[in-house]
């Protein structure tokens, strides 16, 4: 019988060394491999440049002609103070009790969690 398995011949190419791979890469990639500090400068400079550009675009108003304001008409009017002082408490008692109860229950939950045996 014939063997049904096909055997692939081994490739005769040898593995390229790292210097040969560097020779075949693009110049920009080769530059970043040789000088890794350029990554830091580029990644720091890009947001800095965008921030400076956006700042100056936000504060630029363009040419705004100076307009003299019109003189307002003065109206003399006396106001009568008829408001009575409001001495009542605007915060209801049930709201204060609800806040105190929720804080107390939160403290109780945290206390119980801290009292649990430590699992290592």
Structure description:
Keywords: Membrane, Transmembrane, Transmembrane helix. Residues 1-25 are annotated as: Disordered. The chain crosses the membrane at residues 37-56, 93-114. Residues 7-23 have a biased composition (Basic and acidic residues). There is one protein chain. The mean pLDDT is 78. The protein has helices at residues 18-24, 27-34, 37-59, 93-115. It contains 4 helices and no strands. The longest helix is centred in the middle third of the chain and has 23 residues, at 37-59. 51% of the residues lie in helices and 0% in strands. It is an all-alpha fold. The chain has a domain at 18-59.
Quick overview:
Helices cover 51% and strands 0% of the residues. The protein is an all-alpha fold.
């Amino acid at each position: 019988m014939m063997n049904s398995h096909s055997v692939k011949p081994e490739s005769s190419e040898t593995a390229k060394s790292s210097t040969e791979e560097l020779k075949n890469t693009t110049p920009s990639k080769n530059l970043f491999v040789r000088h890794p500090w350029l990554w830091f400068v580029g990644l720091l400079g890009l947001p800095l440049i965008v921030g400076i550009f956006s700042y100056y675009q936000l504060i630029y108003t363009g040419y705004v002609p100076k307009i003299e304001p019109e003189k307002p008409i003065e109206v003399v009017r006396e106001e009568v103070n008829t408001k009575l002082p409001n001495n009542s408490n605007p915060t209801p008692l049930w709201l204060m009790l609800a806040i105190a109860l929720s804080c107390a229950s939160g403290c109780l939950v945290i206390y119980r969690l801290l009292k649990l045996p430590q699992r290592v």
